[in-house]
Amino acid sequence: MTVPITAAAPDAPTAQGPSAADGSAEGPSAPQVLARCRELVRPALAAAVDLLHPWPAEMAAFSLGWCEVGGCPGPGGGGEGKGVRQALTVLCAEAAGAPAESAVAGAVAVELIHTFTLLHDDIMDGDETRRQRPTVWKAYGTGPAVLAGDALFALALETLATAENAHSAAAIRRLTQALRHLVHGQAEDLLFESRPWTGPGAVRLDEYRSMADHKTGALLGCAAALGAQLAGAPSSTVAALAQTGRHLGVAFQTVDDLLGVWGDPEVTGKPVHSDLRRGKKTFPVLAALSSSTPAARRLGELLASPSPLDDAALRDAAALIEEAGGRAAALDEARRHLDLATRSLHSVPLDPAAVGDILALLPFLVSRRM
Q1: How far apart are CA 283 and CA 337, in angstroms?
Q2: Cα–Cα distance list, 6 to 54, 75, 231, 316, 321 (Å)
Q3: How many domains, in total, are found in the chain?
């Protein structure tokens, strides 16, 4: 099934949005917007990757979906991502009234950072597949994957530092601040795994929200802000677009949590119940446990088992999460942040056509198949 999430109009009290926000006939569709931005950014992204040593460059190209292991050209198994972050950077420059080309260096930098985080995140989580094929550490080894991630991190900073843009120094400061926030969120996410499911030491929903804002919201917020910053937009515009991206990031993370419990492996590329199997503290589970229902009590007892949960127990846990309201609460949380993202977008004067393109992206990015 598809996660049914839509964006609200700026003055609407509900999560239902206008037709223009869903990529209807009033403007280009979300896939068309993403394809346009990828086409603009890819030559500069490829040129940046070519600056690396051939080995980490190959791993970077593999992670980006451009080649197979060994460097054979061509994506494998849908390995190329949507290009969400680079698109936000380009679109936010346009929204600020500047040509898309002014933000290409920023778009390259955020895409390199995003790829770096995926390489290291897959190692930390032990994930063996991503986008329907092996993760970089699984294909090349842990050490090489760490090296490739480090190379992408350095390359992202170099890309901004050497950009011919009067605002590149401020852009570098924003990117490094976002990286600090991202590391903060990732550290919290890892530490949550060692905390109990229930009782005084359990992870609270407000702690989860802070973690998601840092781990996922920081880079999406940075991607949006960089476009406006490189365009020379006023600070109020940069701040509003940064907030738009951060809310989108939390919505994106919440839907990712739903996929970690109920996602279709054929779509997600990960085993069914993957997050439950690892004991990750995700929003639907935490919301279910906080519901004070009989299902929540049974779920807490099941998750507290000293033995790893087998497939039958994982199915029972997923059913209890839904019965205790965790699935519905996560969908409501994602809708709420999508609405907040839309409101932030409408809080400052922006180019209407670019705003239409961004609105087309919002529900598409968090309405992923389960």
Answers
A1: 14
A2: 43, 31, 29, 30, 23
A3: 1
Question: Which tokens hold the place of 47?
Answer: 């040129």
Asked if residues 317 and 299 have their Cβ atoms less than 8 Å apart, the reply is yes
Copy the structure tokens of residue 304.
Answer: 């507290």
User: CA geometry: angle at 79 spanning 86 and 56, to 5°?
Assistant: 80
Task: Name the residue among 225, 226, 222 with its Cα closest to residue 213.
Answer: 222
> Which tokens in the block code for residue 8?
């609200």
pLDDT tens for residues 3-44? Answer: 555 444 333 322 333 333 344 446 889 999 999 999 999 999
CA 143-148-153 angle, to 5 degrees, is: 125
Asked if the structure places residue 308 within a domain, the reply is yes
Q: How far apart are CA 96 and CA 46, in angstroms?
A: 26
Give residue 116's domain range. 19-366
In a domain, 303, yes or no: yes
Q: Cα–Cα distance between 238 and 218 in angstroms, integer?
A: 14
Q: 319 Cβ partners below 8 Å, 6+ apart?
A: none
> Is residue 298 in a domain?
yes
Q: Give this prediction's pTM.
A: 0.88
Kindly report the number of other CB atoms within 10 A of residue 153's CB atom.
Answer: 18
Instruction: Give the CA-trace dihedral at 242, 243, 247, 253, to 10 degrees.
Output: 40
**CA-based torsion, 237, 110, 343, 96: positive or negative:** positive
Is residue 246, in this structure, part of any structural domain at all? yes
Tokens of 87: 């698109």
Terminal alpha carbon distance of the chain: 5
Only one residue has tokens 């790893």, namely 308
Give which of 229, 220, 120 is closest to 173, Cα–Cα. 229
CATH number for 97: 1.10.600.10
Token reading at 108: 């390259």
pLDDT tens track for 289-336: 999 899 999 999 999 988 888 999 999 999 999 999 999 999 999 999
